[in-house]
User: Which sequence fits this backbone?
């Protein structure tokens, strides 16, 4: 059971990271939004890499 929860957790994190990357790539005009997307991506990426 814990393995299923861990896989689901990483899948949800990967989807959220993919959405943040997609929005980061699409955003061209507002630099503030780019910074916010980058700040959101850092903890998500660290979770996928299993770094704390």
Assistant:
């Amino acid at each position: 059971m814990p393995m299923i929860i861990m896989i689901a957790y990483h899948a949800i994190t990967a989807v959220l990271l993919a959405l943040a990357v997609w929005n980061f790539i699409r955003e061209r005009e507002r630099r503030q939004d780019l910074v916010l997307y980058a700040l959101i991506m850092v903890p998500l990426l660290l979770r996928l890499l299993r770094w704390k």
